[in-house]
Specification:
The protein contains 10 helices and 14 strands. It has 310 residues and is of the alpha/beta class. The strands form 4 sheets. An 8-stranded parallel β-sheet has the order 3-2-1-4-5-6-11-14, with helices on both faces. A two-stranded parallel sheet has the order 7-10. The chain has a two-stranded parallel ribbon with strand order 8-13. The longest helix has 18 residues. It binds NADP nicotinamide-adenine-dinucleotide phosphate (NAP).
């Protein structure tokens, strides 16, 4: 694939870095398009110097998107954010921003586009995040016929925010509050599997125009995942059910903070299961046998973390 050039929007992020690493490992030239390329210089270490190019682009600014996709064979859009801030709304990033990437990729005669969405994306959802993801999918399909959409469940791996945050809380506090009774189902998927899925999609033209839901090999309740984390950090903690209305109140109060650790939308997301529906293609259809949480978690969550308080 040495003559190919793939632009990865969001290539400095948690998932984006892994995608860049996988593409670079197979000899692909990669252009990483982000708002802060100076924060992404470590990516250069993944490959020989000229193989990875860092460019400044904001998906909200279509002229920067046009420059970033120029002379590329494929584009992967992995841009995302979880908290709205100023003009950086969910709609601006997951909706209109995604449209800008798809439209400019089409205009630049890019062959393949992969759009990273999320499980449960739904343009009619009452969650602004899920709704923007759903609208984004619709806009991207209209602008780029043949786009491949990947919808991961919660993604885990070294540097993830999900398990690392839970482990940090578990080390510091004697009591862990559950969302409701902790019965929400999740199907975490390994970041390396999602990155491999991108590589497989680009290598296989039959994946054009298809949607894949990406989940791990097992479904867990939130409570079961907390227990896994506790075992991993070697702590005994009390798990306390906390009704959702209290979480809603807490999130409403936190909305006044400059960087709220919890938002109303995140609470909303925890009210519904986040698992592969079985109505679309999956990792297995890409020839990937997903890796379990139990296999990977011990490689980056352990009892002797330097921040551990007890
Ligand atoms: N992590 C998960 O558990 C999970 C689960 C399901 C779906 N997803 C989806 O997977 C994708 C990647 O998630 P992630 O966890 O890797 O996110 P992340 O770590 O927050 O990375 C986001 C990336 O997007 C870039 N970015 C943000 N706003 C941008 C903008 N306006 N224009 C250009 N680049 C921008 C960021 O770099 P700069 O700040 O330098 O621009 C960064 O490289 C997202 O679409 C996310 O919604 C993630």
């Amino acid at each position: 694939m040495a003559s190919k050039r793939v632009t990865v929007f969001g290539g400095s992020g948690f998932l984006g870095r892994q995608i860049v690493k996988c593409l670079a490992a197979e000899g692909t030239n990669v252009r990483v398009a982000v708002r802060h390329p100076e924060r992404a210089s470590l990516l250069k270490g993944f490959a020989r110097d000229s193989q990875i190019e860092l460019v400044r682009a904001d998906v909200w600014d279509e002229s920067t998107v046009a420059r970033a996709v120029k002379n590329c064979t494929s584009v992967i859009n992995t841009v995302g954010h979880y908290v709205e801030k100023g003009s950086s709304t969910f709609d601006a990033v997951h909706g209109q921003g995604a449209l800008h990437v798809a439209r400019q990729a089409r205009q630049a005669a890019v062959e393949r586009l992969i759009h990273i969405s999320g499980l449960g994306a739904d343009p009619t959802s009452d969650s602004p995040y899920v709704r923007a993801r759903g609208i984004g999918e619709v806009l991207v399909k209209e602008a780029f016929d043949g786009v491949t959409i990947l919808r991961p469940s919660v993604i885990f791996g070294p540097d993830d925010s999900f398990f690392n945050t839970l482990a940090g809380i578990a080390r510091r506090t004697p009591v862990l509050p559950l969302f409701g009774m902790g019965r929400t189902n999740l199907q975490p998927v390994f970041v390396g599997d999602v990155a491999e899925a991108c590589v497989s999609v680009l290598a296989d033209p039959s994946t054009e125009g298809k949607v894949y839901e990406l989940g791990g090999p097992r479904v867990y309740t939130y409570k079961a995942l907390l227990r896994l984390v506790l075992r991993q950090v070697d702590r005994r903690r009390v798990l306390v059910p906390l009704p959702f209305f209290l979480w809603d109140t807490l999130a409403a109060l936190m909305a006044f903070l400059p960087d709220p650790p919890l938002t109303r939308d995140q609470v909303k997301l925890m009210k519904r299961d986040n698992v592969v529906e079985g109505t679309t293609l999956t990792l297995e259809d890409l020839g990937i046998g997903p890796i379990s949480v139990e296999e990977i978690l011990p490689t980056y969550i352990n009892p002797n973390h330097r921040n551990s308080a007890s």
